[in-house]
Amino acid sequence: MKASEIRELSLDERTQKLSDLTEELFNLRFQHQTGQLENSAKLTRIKGDIARIKTIIRENKSDKLEL
Question: Which residues of the chain have pLDDT under 70?
């Protein structure tokens, strides 16, 4: 997911997306540990998306504090 796509979402949508991705990461980690995960690159992609969303949420909070 691109940063520009995340910035277009509302705060509630970002929070929901973050929750969904966190749950998906948990499931992927579980599959990885049980040897059922075929594409381990998904773990890295999901972690990056989570970090990107958290960063954009944090940016918006700091922008509001400066105003």
Answer: 67
